[in-house]
Automatic annotation (TrEMBL):
GO terms for molecular function: DNA binding. This is XRE family transcriptional regulator. It comes from the Bacteria. It comes from Caulobacter vibrioides.
Length: 82
């Protein structure tokens, strides 16, 4: 499951505003705001979380689960170019 921090960090990596992410994901601004808020995306529908994930991944963001590459929490990085 994505975290609010991963969504915000992913947006920052690709220099997207909340409105830009909302447009790319086909969601409303209040939905994006809620997903990035204190309760995170846990209260959103699975379809909305997937839409955000897909939009950011299409822009080059790679989501990492906790402990996936090194010990630690969930994170994000940019896809290698080439």
């Amino acid at each position: 499951m994505l975290t609010a921090e991963q969504i915000k960090a992913g947006r920052a990596l690709v220099d997207w505003s909340q409105p830009r992410l909302a447009e790319a994901a086909g969601l409303s601004m209040p939905t994006i705001r809620r997903m990035e808020g204190p309760l995170g995306p846990g209260r959103s529908t699975a379809a909305n979380v997937e839409a955000v994930r897909r939009a950011l991944e299409n822009a080059g963001v790679v989501f990492m689960e906790a402990g996936e590459t090194k010990p630690g929490g969930p994170g994000v990085r940019l896809k290698a170019s080439g």
